Amino acid sequence: MITDLTKGKPSSLIWRFTLPMLISIIFQQMYNICDSVIAGNFVGSAPIDGELALAAVGASYPVTMLFIQIANGINGGCAVVISQLFGAKEHVRMKTAVSTSMITTLALAAVLTLGGLIFCDPIMTALNTPANIFADSALYLRIYIAGLPFLFMYNVCTGIFTALGDSKTPLIFLIASSVGNIILDLIMVIPMQMGVAGVAWATFIAQGVSAVLAAVSLFARIGRIKTVHKSPLFSPHMLGTISRIAIPTICQQSFVSVGNLLIQGLVNGMDSAVIAGYSSAIKLNTFAVNAMACISNGISSFTAQNIGAGKHERVPQGYKAGLVFTAVCVVPFLVCYLCFSEAMIGIFFSEPSDEALRIGVSFLRAASPFYAVLGVKLLSDGVLKGAGAMKSFMAATFSDLLLRVVLSYLLVPETIAGVIPAAGMGFDGFLWAWPIGWGLSALMSLWFYLRGNWRSTAFASSLSKIVRQ
Question: Which has the closest alpha carbon to 25: 333, 372, 349, 336?
Fold first, then answer.
């Protein structure tokens, strides 16, 4: 169902619109976690085999996240323009924006798939992947990369549905995909004994089916929106308009993932037990972060539609509702990760080593107290992105990235580039780098929001320029 977010009580709209998105994220992260749980518990015949399998999947995780973040960047950029056009009732241009987004997304996915398959092994080598998990890590990554067109297609469809105020349809597809993925994981890993490859193929198949069905449903929905004039299938001008939002968003998402790749390179330089413990903790951490990012995306769509309709006064009301929703979201993660951290890490292993368990528990206990701070940052970023204030949005995001990467390289190793003395804290250095990065960048994001950067005429008038042209 398409929802107009420019009418009605903002707090009620935010909760009704964002809750299905949050449930979608829960299912999505559940099947991502199940990949690792099944790898850690059922690959091989001994506990050490499962730990190595979990390390193999985890070693390539930042690379897969890089592709996901690029897809999310396209998703976000398209959604802002489509939301603004929908809010202004510019349905002909909106349809052109939808088809242009889809064509461009699939073309980019094809290029990335080819490049990823060619450079898979060099990427894993650059990440210092240990020899005992290299083959499985590279195999998992190749299969994942082969499914990038499906990943990108599904993400752009989800973004467009959300831009139109429909957060329920993506939820249906995601629940079906998640359940299918878990079932395929169990079949391919246990009775078929396909190991790490089985985990990757399960994701490939489930994601492919979901992407195709989502695309068919989306274009059927768009076709039911009646317009007087026929909309062009592709518009270079519309591509330029979308790119002005999408490219900064893609850069922002990609640079964050590149930063995570650099951090993963430090982790991969340690032993496989550390990689396994970190991989389990980072999956749980990503669950919490993506849940908060989901609320941020809801606020972004709300902001974009209302700015497109010229109702700027509703944006702060939506922001306040988002703060309450974020607080409610953070509590269960905080309780689980602080009070039951050993049990949470333990689900990834049949018999975890003491070192893997210590690493995972330490990370969760260090990061989770700062989730509320991160939630404020992501919510403020959502308003900035929805308003098209991309310079402020990128500045706030890059501050987080730079701080976490720089602090990691200062605190973790013994030396920098083998020459400059560093703190030499080992893995414990990460426990300082992440919270500090989140905290300082949250202050910047909040300052941009309170300063009113999203109200700037240069950003708020972007839609009117599109319409005039």
Answer: 333
